[in-house]
Amino acid sequence: MAVSWFCAVILFYYVFGEEVLIEYYPSQSHIDAGSKVQRKREIKTNDLPNDVYTNDTSQQIKWRHFNQEENDDDGEIHKRALDPVFHGHPKTREELWNMHFLNETAVFDQTPSLVNLLHNISLTYLKDCVPVILYDSQVKSKESYLVQKVLKDFPMSVIHGYINESNELVQPKLLHASTDCQHYILFLSDIKVSAKILGKQPENKIIIVARSSQWALKEFLASVNSRMFVNLLVIGQSFKEGDDETLESPYILYTHKLYTDGLGASQPVVLNSWTHGKFSRNVDLFPLKMTEGYAGHRFVVAAANQPPFVFRRIKSDLDGGNPRVVWEGVEIRILKLLAERNNFSIEIIEPRELNLGPGDSVAKEVMLGRADIGIAGMYLTSDRVRDMDVSMAHSHDCAIFITLMSTALPRYRAILGPFHWHVWLALTFTYLFGMFPLAFSDKHTLRHLLHNS
């Protein structure tokens, strides 16, 4: 049956002389060789083509060429064909003018909302200290108008500084001001560099306006670097896929919960949100931290022998074996009471450079980060207060200077003092030889007496 249909098709083309059209795709090398084949499509023609491959002279096969250049250049200029149907969302003439000339787009400007948020937080929480505003190079180059608007109408006195491309503060003295109370507002493109810039800030309030994603913010709040800030507030903008750009996006306010387990991990917490000029709820943006203790976290304590505050003793078993160091003293007892009250444990180590003295050697361990706490009966000095966090004084020490007791002077010594007797004798002879000639002279000078011939 299939053979009969095939024979019928061959007979139909033989009778009517139809042309068989075969599609031919030349290779790129054939095109580059300069082969110019005129592309035409002719149906039912009597002209015999140049390239014909057929087994029957009555059957004509026409090759159809693709990827060939048109060679029908008649020298005339032809208009380009246009699609009468526009595909897309065209902008009006007014929108094009706003975009190109007035630099205005339909996207909602979030800057006024952020400026109002910072002003509101500053008036509520930063009135007790002078705020310091710091911004990095990317914010300065791309969002300089934001910093200008924040500084223009700031409700109180403010100090501002610049962070260079190496993530270092150009004015490092801003971190070591004469006043202990100093809050910071940071505009950063990368929130992770904040710990490197400010260092440890256990009391000052830190506000970070981060241009990072919400995932990056939560990763920083859960990291070890966020533990360097206790009073921390991070402001991030809410970005959701599919949101209308013509509407205001809320700002999300984050903080962290410190020491959630024994390893010292932190947990990000969403405090509030700001949109349309108000907060979503009434909460404290700087809540108290570590109210439930430190979850059994272990702190390293550097201690040096300084009786009666710290005693270092070596004890052993009854047979004299198993020698071990035992620490006692007033500060050891105070530290154990604090550990029991705040749910943490301690590990006592000795400083590496004991030749510096008990206080200085322990202080160096803390400043280099090898210890969290230092105890050695240390005195409170201005340098230590500047470089470290010190506790309240638990003892007061009084020092005096002693000298030999002074005896009562004789009366003549009290009159002739403070000069010696030969000084007074020289002054007396000088007065006698000088004042008598002057007294008998009307000219009150010795010149005429010396030259009187």
Automatic annotation (TrEMBL):
<keyword id="KW-1003">Cell membrane</keyword>
<keyword id="KW-0472">Membrane</keyword>
<feature type="signal peptide">
    <location>
        <begin position="1"/>
        <end position="17"/>
    </location>
</feature>
<keyword id="KW-0812">Transmembrane</keyword>
<dbReference type="GO" id="GO:0005886">
    <property type="term" value="C:plasma membrane"/>
</dbReference>
<keyword id="KW-0732">Signal</keyword>
<feature type="transmembrane region" description="Helical">
    <location>
        <begin position="421"/>
        <end position="440"/>
    </location>
</feature>
<protein>
    <submittedName>
        <fullName>Ionotropic Receptor 6</fullName>
    </submittedName>
</protein>
<keyword id="KW-0675">Receptor</keyword>
<keyword id="KW-1133">Transmembrane helix</keyword>
<dbReference type="InterPro" id="IPR052192">
    <property type="entry name" value="Insect_Ionotropic_Sensory_Rcpt"/>
</dbReference>
<keyword id="KW-0325">Glycoprotein</keyword>
